[in-house]
Structures are given as structure tokens and as C-alpha cells.
Amino acid sequence: MKRYYQPEIETASREEILKIQNEKIVKQVRYVYDNVPYYRNLMDKKGVTPDDIKSVDDIKKLPFLTKDDLREAYPYGLLGTDLKNCVRIHSTSGTTGKRVVAFYTQHDIDLWEDCCARAIVAAGGSDEDVCQVCYGYGLFTGGSGLHGGSHKVGCLTLPMSSGNTDRQIQFMMDLGSTIICCTPSYAAYIGESLAEKGYKPEDNKLKAGIFGAEPWTEEMRREIEKSLGIKAYDIYGLTETSGPGVAFECEEQTGMHINEDHFYAEIIDPDTGEVLPEGEKGELVFTSLDKEGFPLLRYRTKDICILSRKPCSCGRTHVKMSKPFGRSDDMMIIRGVNVFPSQIEAVLLNEGYPPNYQIVVDRVNNTDTFDIYVESTPEMFSDKVSDMQAGEDKLKLAMRSMLGIGPKIHLVAPKTIQRSEGKAVRVIDKRKLH
Ligand code: DLL
After folding, report:
1. pLDDT tens profile 174-195
2. 244 CA to middle of ligand 1, Å?
3. Which atom of ligand 1 is least distant from the CA of 212?
4. What structural domains does the chain harbor?
5. Is residue 244 within 6 Å of ligand 1 at its C-beta?
6. Which of 182, 249, 208 is nearest to 423 (CA)?
7. Is the CB of 142 under 6 A from ligand 1?
């Protein structure tokens, strides 16, 4: 079985990768300068010309691009080529403002699908596999990305899209799916539904899952691995840079290899914009190295993570990014304390609760309120108020020691928190809604 989809690139030496990157960046910057007036303007304002960019070391001279720029340039302002050369668009859900629309030429689709194919092979996939894709198809990149990757690997591809969980399970069991691709919250839901139908983890043929598109903790990984009887791999990406597959996990499960021949990664201090050394935590910034339709230079993702060049036992040489600790914009500041939803998830799962919860933050009389609704399991659920109260008190204590502040915990009956088929909505911050 193949260990790598493109071994010559995935295991290339550092020098070889740098050589590829240096050649590509010179061309990509020139291409953007010549074809994207919006970015040319940013470069002119900063006094940088394509001639100043001779290698990836010079990337730090370039101006940043932010989500606000994407909104301002909507829809065509960052297009890198004639529309007639583009064959597809994808778009973000637009929950936090105007949608982002990304354009793809056939070349862009090819390199994106290669990245997803690398991820599938890293998860043990081959042409012997049945790959059930239950990310949403359509404008969202999840379905199409993994679908294309699965085709390239030669898996039998089940283009399920998300939702209709009974049908997902029927196909999974009848056709013997061996790999499943979806959001981690949907994977947890499928695991729960399988158990409810009386299936044990060993009853299905699944061996691996490729999960991403939303933050998830190591505790959640263990939960999913147990309930589905699989090894769960992380995959990362964003619409702006093409979609899933910008980075993916290998069997070591200690971070995701960034496809460095296509994307150059930097970590910056989100406040000052200064580039941080390897190993420091900060905002991830990507520069595409060979995109045509929607090339982005120094795009600030808002995802907070750490890069590592520690050698990996899988043999891949590309730099690894940690799981994002959260986004700089989903960090909540509650009564002055920084709180990430991932910290809350870790405490809940460590305390034996299922991964079904919702965080509600509000402001009453100028004071932040902080409530967490947590589903209990049928075994934990009790008619006795004192039992439930004891559970809430214990959880509050555990939260306080992790977060530094104590939320109000509401233990609710099993099955009362809405399940997610795509990206889960974990936080309702009513302060932003007022
Ligand atoms: O979520 C692309 C994708 C699809 C990735 C399927 C993986 C699998 P967007 O909808 O544009 O694209 O959302 C991008 O989702 O900036 C992160 O904040 C978050 N995200 C994506 N993957 C992960 C992950 C897709 N593995 C935004 N862990 C990104 C944590 C993730 N967060």
C-alpha cells in the first residue's frame, strides 16, 4: 500500500522544499502584482515591488491581507485571472458578514484535490477503500474537496453530503465504508446514532475518519475513536486558500503537515503583526505559492496555533501546525478573562460528559453572565434535584480551575441539545447581538 500520495514532494528534503518555494514565490508575487489591482495597490502603498521578493525570506516585506480586504474586494476584486479561465467558485457560509467567494481554475482544483488525496493516503486510504464523504456539498468546500481527493486516490467514493443520518448509517453498513469524512461534531453524532441502533463499534468496517472544519479537542478525538472504532485524523483548511487539505494529519497524530509546496505559513503576533519564531503561539498567515484564480499573499486566518519542524516518524518533511487553539475572534473575554470554547470542551469530556453542550454569554447590568448547558447521559440524569445539583457543582469547580472563572452550569436531559450535521454552533454570545 502507498504510504504517500506524492512521495517525492511529501518527503523532500528541507533544501528541496525551499528551492520549490523560492522559485514559486517570485512568480506568484509577480503574477498577483500584474493581475490583482487591489493587492498591487497595497504593495505600492507599502513601497514593495515584485523585484523585492527574491525568496520566501522576503515574504515578510509584503502587506497583510485580511478578511476585511476580502469583503471590500467582494466579489471580483481579488480575482487573479479572467473569469473565462475559472471553472468553479466556493463560498463561506457568511455568518459573520458578507460572504467570501473564492475562484478556481482547473489548475487550482487539481492542486487542491492533490492536497486532499495526500490527506486520505496519510489516513491509510488506497483504491481498496470505500470513502464516505459526509461533509456538505455545494458552496462549502468540505464535500467537493474530499470528494476530489477520494477520486484521485481511487477510493470508491460515496458522495453523501451531510445530514440524513439514517441513510448515512444504512450506506455505511451496506456498502462497508472504510473511511468517513465529516465534521468532528457530526462524527460524534453518527457514533451516538449507531449505538442507539444497537451497533457496536466493531460492527462497522470503518478504519479511519478525516475530520475538520471546526475546532475539536484531543478528548473529542478519543471519544470519536472509541464510538466508531477508528483512528481519527485532523484536516485543516479554509475557503480562502482553497478548502480542506491545506494541512492534514499523519499516523503520528501530533499536528498537521502543511502542504508547503503550495502554501507558505507564518505565525505572527496578532497584535503587532511581527513574525514569531518557530514554536511560538500566534496567528497563522498563509501565502499561496501557485494559485491562479484566487491567489492570496499573507492572508491572516485568525486561527491561533503553533508551527513545528520536529522530525516526524511518518517520514513527511513538511512543517506541522498544531490543532488551532481557537480563532482570535472566537476567544471570549468574559469578566476580563480569556476563554476558549476548546478549554470548556476538554473539561466536559474529561468529566465524562458527552460532547453536546452550548455556551451562552450575555451582559446583564454591565456584568457578563456565563452559562454552560451540558447534556447529561441517561445514566447521569436523575429526577432528584440534589443529584443534579451535585453534578453541576462538581463541573463548576472543574471549570473554575481550568478557566479561572466559574460559569453557571445547567445539566439538561439527554437529547435536548441540538445535534450538528455540519459545523456545530457552540457559543451564543448575546453581547454581540444586542
Ligand atoms: O472549513 C474547510 C474545511 C472543510 C476544512 C472540511 C476541513 C474539512 P471554511 O468554512 O472557510 O473552510 O472555514 C475555515 O474553519 O479558519 C478554522 O477556523 C476552521 N477550521 C477548519 N479546519 C479546522 C480544524 C473549511 N481541523 C475555518 N480544526 C478555519 C480547527 C478548523 N478549526
Report:
1. 999 999 999 999 999 999 999 9
2. 7
3. 26
4. 1-326 (3.40.50.12780), 332-429 (3.30.300.30)
5. yes
6. 182
7. yes
